[in-house]
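Hi! If you just cloned this repository, the fastest way to understand the data is to look at a raw example. We've pasted two of them here, unedited. The first protein comes first, obviously.
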Amino acid sequence: MAQGLQREVALAGMHITKIPAVALLAFLVALVLTGLRFILRRTVIQASLAWALLAALLGLNGDGPAATMYLATGGLVLIVSLIETSHRMAFSDELTGLPSRRALTDALMRLPEAYTVAMIDIDHFKKLNDEFGHAAGDQVLRMIGSTLTRTEGGGRPFRYGGEEFAVLFPGKSTEEALPYLQDLRETIEASVFIVRGGDRPKLKPKPVRSTGGRKRVAITVSIGVAEPEEVGVEPDEVIRAADQALYHAKRTGRNRICIADGGR
């Protein structure tokens, strides 16, 4: 009787799908696993894999043009997701979520004649890394990156590399951008960074424990600012001038802003 029931179920499955039971089971397992991965890590690649598997399942179960359309759609979804992911990896910084140095280069090529570039460097970052470890350094980089996203005046932040960032002000002179950079510097100076302990739990405890035993670190930044001196100046020259102003800010006391035509 049990064998007869299994035969009826198998015959019924043959009418529903043309895919063998083993292959159908493999598809279902793959879809479940892909769905779980997407829930844990919501990325374009994970979503595209789920849609591609579903399209392949429908394509293998279909006939003629419909099957071809499903399979082609699944392949197209994967191609588009790979292109988007590659673009994101090239133009976005994974640690801070800010646009990367390559994105800054691309933005500089499409700017109006008037613009200002501010190069920002975290003061005593190497010392912080040596004393508290690279994990603490990464926390500081993420904190600075988050603060830079709140820059007003149309400033666009970028992760330039290492502990250095850039903020681009399209259509603004250095004098126009300076008040926003001062606000940014003061905001970072006023913030308090608390170094997380190595035994810190992943989930926030209840009630919240006192931070009395944790190390509080003051974070400051030095900023160099530059703009094109004349029409036709290459963006690399403006970046270089802003970097020189940044080094001047470092040499003359840190936690300050210097503009390329001298210092402040």
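Ok, and the second one:
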Amino acid sequence: MKRVLIASPIKQKPSILSEFLACLQGLNTEGLILEYMFIDDNDQPSKELQAFSEGRPGVAILKGTEQSHLYQCNEQTHFWQDDIVWKVARYKDYFIQAARQRGYDYLFLVDSDLALHPKTITHLVSIDKDIVSEVYWTKWEQQLIPLPQVWLGGQYRLHELEAGKELNANEVARRQQEFISKLYCPGTYKVGGLGACTLLSQAALQAGVSFQKIYNLDLVGEDRHFCVRAAVLGLELYADTCYPPFHIYRESELPMLTHHKEQYDFAQSKPRPKLTLAVLVRNEADRYLEKVLTHAARYVDQAVILDDASTDQTVEVCKRCLGNLPHQIIVNKEAGFHNEVTLRKQLWELAVGTEADWILILDADEVFEDAIVDVMPHLVNNPNADVYYFRLYDMWNEIQYREDEYWQAHKTYRPFLVRYRPEYPYVWQDSPQHCGRLPVNIGILRDIPCQIRLQHLGWARPADRLEKYYRYKKLDPDAIYGNKAQYQSILDPKPALIVWQESE
């Protein structure tokens, strides 16, 4: 059993504090022993804290002893005087010292205006990072868009920098949107700053993390000083987005909490969404089909295979690899690869017929990174997404992918995973080649880019490249549906290749 100390300085409105404590009470504790430490900085002892501690072992309530300016917040924003900031910093350092001295495995520092999902602590512990925050979203002022409490650097920089390169306003805005979009996709990401909902490992505690002010650092807020010191100590900072808390930044936002809890299934009562894998195959027995299906079987619920009149052992490979996974294999008597859109429509209808909540369309030579196994359950449970876009890397051998003028697919996000909505009028691009694997009008649905990458293995063998070259020459001799120069480049004897590196 891992021991976790949950700690928070408390100066909070009773209505908000009650929701915070109710969520603490509802936390999953599987494999964990949770204990609590609060510093009550209210003018009068908090009745809500006292009620929380009654009959519950492992709760320490300490009285705040430091005087400071009156903390003020209203329906517009919160106002942090400098002396309040550093008082809170000292309180947090007290928690760090207590957790270190008492040998806790983890310290969870959390603000008292957050409503936590029941799986927050167990999930953060499972990530196995020394410092990780669960991301929440806040309108810091009423007129602003919701923004995260994590950032990439500086005071609150939300865009990546590039050494020696000055970015114009448009590029800054593009990179900011890229970072924000990434955080809307469930996953765990390396960041430069975080706070307010943070799990610290025993290793981080022992390394010497602290909220103490760094005297020559011109950054406002104790979290910035904590993050800079952590990085200097060699600790990396991570943001997780799988179980976003609800930030009760304003008392007027309390009514929205119910909707948030329903969206993210705080009650843990909804059935798991059903994910169907759909694959179009033809004579794939001796290529990559076994690898693709064996890997996908680890994270999908069922599969449909459309075999386009294979003349080899493709169907037998499918049966063997899918094993006990619920699946259907439909075999066309006559090949239809010369008219791809007909096959794509047929495959789509087969997937729809499985009554799936989500449909994943992969080709028989495409495989995700291993990280997809852990992340996929969170992707399909995300209430704010209808389509996920991924980057596809054209592998030129087992360890290298191609990147040059004509081979840049991996620089563009493309749809592979879509939530099926029966009421939506899906439309296809009626093109015999390069028609797309999904309906063309999914582009207006709520889409999110996912950082997990796909390897496209179809170009990895010289024989495969030669076969595809002659296939395109036969099916599209005038390059009506593709790029003639790219077709010619397939046989380039010295292509530009980059070594594939697995994500963290």
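That's it. A detail worth noticing about the second one: The chain has 14 helices and 25 strands.
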